[in-house]
Amino acid sequence: MVNLFQYNTNDTKLQTETKIKLEEIAIVRTDGFPDRPTIIFLHDSLGCIKLWRDFPEKLGELTKCNILVYDRQGYGESCPFSYSKRNNYYMEQEADLLNELLDFWQIDKAILFGHSDGGSIALITAGKYPDKIQGIITEGAHIFVEDVTIKGIEEAIKLYKTTDLKIKLEKYHRNKTNEMFWAWASTWTTNEFRNWNIEGFLPKIECRSLIIQGEEDEYGTLKQVENIITHTNGQSTQLVIPNVKHTPHKEAPEMILQKTSEFIKEINE
Hints:
The protein has 269 residues and is of the alpha/beta class. It has a single domain (2-146, 196-267), classed as 3-Layer(aba) Sandwich (Rossmann fold). It is 38% helix and 20% strand. It has nine helices and nine strands. The strands form two sheets. Strands 3-5-4-6-7-8-9 form a seven-stranded mixed β-sheet, with helices on both faces. The N and C termini lie far apart (37 Å).
């Protein structure tokens, strides 16, 4: 089991009573390339293993790297949430949990590929545990909350209430769907969360990073990319894609496969 912690503004650990059994975190893993890095895929706020489709396998083959895709707690086939309500530090808690999972999975050469929330978690993980991370790739990662972010979430709430979005999500998250959706939508639209900011972790990131965003991303402006590129300590490259929204690996899969495979090959030369 692993204890989850929440952090106050003085960075003091406050241990919670909840615990997670690491074996209850669902994964799909391939280990066909001995002595090569493992690309770990971190899904978005409504995502899961299955919603990555075959993208991880294709990237693994292109780069001759192992892959691991996992469902975070409360998503897909993993255990339910260990908490009743999210706080402003839930993504840092997920980064701490990922650190524990890296040991549990016995991975010492990790490349993180994170989408949206997964991208933010990847940035925090690389900042807090730099010795374990060889490189990071993010798509639509957030480091602070913007008006466009809230607008995008409010539109998603409308779709959840008035269309078959809930039914579609239930295919993947089953009886965890409602709790999962509102854990995201309710948290991000509170006044308290408007102050959420993870820019303090960026100068601690030592590895190389590829920061991807669609130019038409409905959840964030290019200010997110600019600030990540400016403040990370390791070499950071941006990839902004015209006519693409929040999910580049689905909207422009061939381009993303090409650019990310080139990036991974470069950091492993």
